[in-house]
Design brief:
There is one protein chain. The chain is an alpha/beta fold and 475 residues long. The model has no long low-confidence stretch (mean pLDDT 97). The protein folds into three domains: 171 residues, NAD(P)-binding Rossmann-like Domain (Rossmann fold); 250 residues, N-(1-d-carboxylethyl)-l-norvaline Dehydrogenase, domain 2, CATH 1.10.1040.10; 37 residues, Up-down Bundle (Single alpha-helices involved in coiled-coils or other helix-helix interfaces). Strand 1, helix 1 and strand 2 form a beta-alpha-beta unit. The longest helix has 34 residues. Helix 12 packs across helix 15. The structure holds nicotinamide 8-bromo-adenine dinucleotide phosphate.
């Protein structure tokens, strides 16, 4: 009687995933490098389902039915490689190794190629939803061979979150595609949180109390902005610190941490040439928050408005902040999905962007009402970019007056809104009939003879800037 599936790594994510699998009726082999962690998990949760704990990796592997399905949930990076290296000699042709950690997609491509050469399947599966998601139903983004998905997909789908009975798990594409999509999910998550932070600072600038701000977010959560992050923003703002009696957010140090997925999103976008300025500003906003030396010296040297927001109609401005938040969020999603489209071209992945939006509707951190609209827009037709979709473009048109007013007011008040303004700049750049790039190209030709193309003739041209000023056509 062999186990259906195995999980390596019994820290919080792995043990919750193993429990989720067991709750869904699968028999689950479990292993952790340090055996005491396996024992602790079994002591606490062993009665919840059919677990097969092992202290030796060889026993763990031998306890699995074939093809073996092994989900690795260990620390990303070297620990993942160490785990794969220990497993590989114990496996047989056709076995499936799944990395459920937050791996960089290039690492996944490398590992997949190596294991494919050994006759094994390697699946890089992005898993979002944190520890609660792992236990109760995450959003799962598996990449690897289609063949492996036939054996693995039903198990992953059984433990994923569901929307109207549909699993938040679908085959994404070959090799690193799943981890790439998970990386973009996290990049969008950074942007979402930055926009929420900007809205919060503007509401505070208006003079709202913390309970009032919590109410505003709770109200927003009943409309187009309905999402997990807006919902928990309301709860975090409402929380009072037991020690001081002050709002908890007021006593939290204003330095945001990061573990790398936002940075990867930007690095990959730079490599692909995808404009993702709104997501980039969210990553840089965390960077400046965590630059104490820079901030301390700048605070001493620099002056400016104090962040108080003075408007004639407070409620009308709050509605405009909501519009700025919604429109910026749409642009960040568009930028992330653009990056997926460009990566798919670059790496030969056949990614269905509408399906990606579909599996983000529940289980994951960026789950939001907007994703259903994104799914249906991509299902309705081939989009180059989300912001061209009819219902999205009209929503942006409706929101833009408020969005512009919020950015202008924030700039005058000295409230930094890099996310709102970057998203708005993207909107204006993308729709512009002409960009200032023509001048840039003229300058490049002047100092570097980089040539330019003309609007009226084919070919590359160069002006003899330093001699007779004549234009020559490059051969
Ligand atoms: P951690 O990221 O804290 O990793 C701890 C696990 O890695 C333990 O099982 C540990 O074994 C094992 N490990 C280490 Br460290 N070095 C190892 C090595 N050289 N060989 C074998 N095993 C090794 O666990 P986590 O927070 O559960 O996250 C697991 C994965 O899921 C990570 O990739 C993470 O990025 C990803 N993830 C986490 C979340 C979240 O909310 N936490 C959300 C989404 C994805 P030991 O007990 O013997 O030290």
């Amino acid at each position: 009687d062999l186990a259906n599936v195995g999980v390596v790594g019994m820290a919080v994510m792995g043990s919750n995933l193993a429990r989720n699998l067991a709750h869904k009726g699968h028999s689950v082999a479990v292993f952790n490098r340090t055996a005491s962690r396996t024992d602790a998990m079994i002591a606490e949760h062993g009665t919840e389902g059919d677990f097969r704990p092992a202290h030796e990796l060889a026993d763990f592997v031998a306890s699995l039915e074939r093809p073996r399905r092994i989900i690795i949930m260990v620390k990303a990076g070297a620990p993942t490689d160490a785990t794969i290296d220990a497993l590989v000699p114990l496996l047989e042709e056709g076995d499936i190794v799944v990395d459920g950690g937050n791996a960089f997609f290039e690492d996944t491509r490398r590992r997949e190629e190596k294991l494919r050469g050994l006759g094994l399947h390697f699946v890089g599966a992005g898993i979002s939803g944190g520890e609660v998601g792992a236990l109760e139903g995450p959003s799962i983004m598996p990449g690897g061979s289609r063949e492996s998905y036939e054996a693995l997909g039903p198990i992953l789908e059984s433990i994923s979150a569901k929307v109207d009975g549909e699993p938040c798990c679908t085959y994404i594409g070959t090799d690193g595609a799943g981890h790439f999509v998970k990386m973009i999910h996290n990049g969008i998550e950074y942007a979402d949180m930055q926009f929420i932070g900007e809205a919060f600072e503007l509401l505070k600038g208006l003079g709202l109390s913390y309970p009032e701000m919590a109410d505003v977010f709770a109200t927003w959560n009943t409309g187009d902005l309905d999402s997990y992050l807006i919902e928990i923003t309301s709860e975090v703002l409402r929380k009072v610190d037991a020690a001081t009696g002050r709002p908890l957010v007021e006593v939290i140090v204003d330095a945001a941490g990061m573990k790398g997925t936002g940075t990867w999103t930007i690095q990959s976008a730079l490599n692909l040439g995808t404009p993702v300025n709104a997501i980039a500003e969210a990553v840089f906003a965390r960077a400046i928050s965590s630059s104490p030396a820079l901030r301390a010296s700048a605070q001493k040297a620099l002056t400016g408005p104090d962040g108080k927001v003075d408007v004639a109609d407070r409620d009308a401005f709050i509605e405009q902040i909501r519009e700025a938040l919604w429109a910026s969020k749409v642009v960040a999603y568009a930028q992330g999905l653009d990056e997926i489209r460009m990566a798919a071209e670059q790496y030969g992945w056949d990614i269905n962007v509408g399906e990606v939006a579909k599996i983000w509707r529940a289980g994951c951190i960026i789950r939001a009402r907007l994703l259903e609209r994104i799914r249906s827009e991509y299902a309705a037709g081939n989009l180059v970019t989300l912001i061209e979709a009819p219902s999205i473009a009209s929503g942006l048109a409706d929101a833009q007056d408020g969005w512009r007013e919020v950015v202008a007011t924030a700039v005058r008040a000295g409230v930094p809104v890099p996310g709102f303004s970057a998203a708005l700049a993207h909107y204006d750049q993308a729709r512009a009939p002409r960009l200032n790039a023509a001048l840039t190209q003229g300058l490049r030709d002047y100092f570097g003879a980089h040539t330019y193309r003309r609007i009226d003739r084919e070919g590359a041209f160069h002006t003899n800037w330093s001699t007779d000023g004549a234009e020559i056509q490059e051969s």
